[in-house]
Write a structure and sequence with these properties.
Elements: E1 27-32, E2 37-43, H1 50-69, H2 75-78, H3 88-110, E3 119-127, E4 130-136, E5 142-145, E6 148-151, H4 158-164, H5 170-173
Length: 180
C-alpha cells in the first residue's frame, strides 16, 4: 500500500447520536483524511459492553490501516497477490476487519464483563480515486452525489434476509419487530 497525502482532496466529517431508544451511545468513530481512512463501529445496544466492542474495533482498525498506509505493517506482504481478484488495498481492509472481528469476539469470550458484546463495523479506505469498503452488520454507508444519496452497503441482518426473500417489503422493515 502506498502512502498518499489526501488532505487537500478529502474532507471527512463524523457524528454519532444515541438514537431515540437508548440513554447512552455505543458508537465509536475515527478518521484520518491525510491517509484516507474512515471507520465507524456501533456497539450492539442492550448487550454487555457494546461501547467496549466498538472502541476496540475502531482502535484496532485505525492502528492497522494507518500502519499499512505508512509502510509500517507487514500485512500487505503477507497477502498472496495471486490469491484474489480484489485490489490489494481492498484485501488489506478486508483482512483488518476480520482481525478486528476476531479481537472483539475473543474479548467477549475471555472477559466475563464483556460476555456477549458485539459491534457493527464500517471501514473505508480511499486510494487512487477509488474507495474500498468493508462492513459487518447493519450500519450503512451512503454515497452523496449531485444532491442525492444512494445506499452502498447491504445490511447483514435478519430483516434484510426477509426483504431479500420477498417476505417483507422495505416499508414494513422500518416498523418490523424482527429487528429488535
Amino acid at each position: 500500500m502506498k502512502s498518499v497525502n489526501l488532505n487537500s482532496r478529502l474532507s471527512m466529517v463524523g457524528q454519532t447520536h444515541q438514537g431515540l431508544v437508548r440513554d447512552y451511545n455505543e458508537d465509536y468513530i475515527a478518521d484520518n483524511a491525510r491517509v484516507g481512512i474512515a471507520v465507524l463501529a456501533d456497539g450492539m445496544g442492550g448487550l454487555n459492553a457494546g461501547e467496549v466492542a466498538s472502541s476496540t474495533a475502531v482502535h484496532l482498525l485505525m492502528e492497522e490501516l494507518i500502519s499499512c498506509r505508512l509502510g509500517g505493517s507487514s500485512l500487505p506482504a503477507e497477502l498472496d497477490p495471486s490469491d484474489s481478484y480484489m485490489p490489494m488495498d481492498s484485501r488489506v481492509v478486508q483482512k483488518v476487519v476480520q482481525m478486528a472481528n476476531k479481537a472483539v469476539f475473543h474479548t467477549s469470550q475471555t472477559l466475563t464483563e464483556c460476555k456477549g458484546m458485539g459491534t457493527t463495523i464500517l471501514a473505508n479506505l480511499f486510494y487512487n480515486n477509488n474507495l474500498s469498503v468493508a462492513h459487518i452488520g447493519d450500519s450503512r454507508i451512503y454515497r452523496f452525489r449531485d444532491n442525492a444519496s444512494k445506499q452502498v452497503t447491504k445490511d447483514h441482518s435478519f430483516v434484510q434476509e426477509l426483504i431479500d426473500k420477498g417476505l417483507l417489503i422495505r416499508e414494513e422493515a422500518w416498523v418490523s419487530d424482527k429487528k429488535r
